[in-house]
Write a structure and sequence with these properties.
The protein is α+β, with helices and mostly antiparallel strands. It has helices at about 5-15, 15-25, 35-40, 45-60, 75-90, and strands at about 35, 60-65, 70-75. Helix 1 packs across helix 5 and helix 2 (about 15-25) crosses helix 4 (about 45-60).
Amino acid sequence: MDITSAIDALGALSQETRLKIFRLLVRNAPEGLAAGEIARRLRLPGPTLSFHLNVLSAADLVQPQKNGRSISYSANVDCANGLAGFLLEDCCGGKRNCLPKRK
């Protein structure tokens, strides 16, 4: 992941509703959920959900799949893993197996 993609992903996730949507989709990976089901579970109006899904999709954090007349969304777990890897790639001087220090 490059820095621009990381900034886009972090920006998309830095809003409470979008973070809730993404976490819901992660819990339901890899199948995902229909847009209506996301709206029902999070108690969001359709236009609000659509706006937030578009932001998450533009950051490549969710992927839409058309199912007839409805659209389902799934978390792009590869993107999330790439973001985590990007954030931690220089941890402990680049050592891959460092452990957190105990307090």
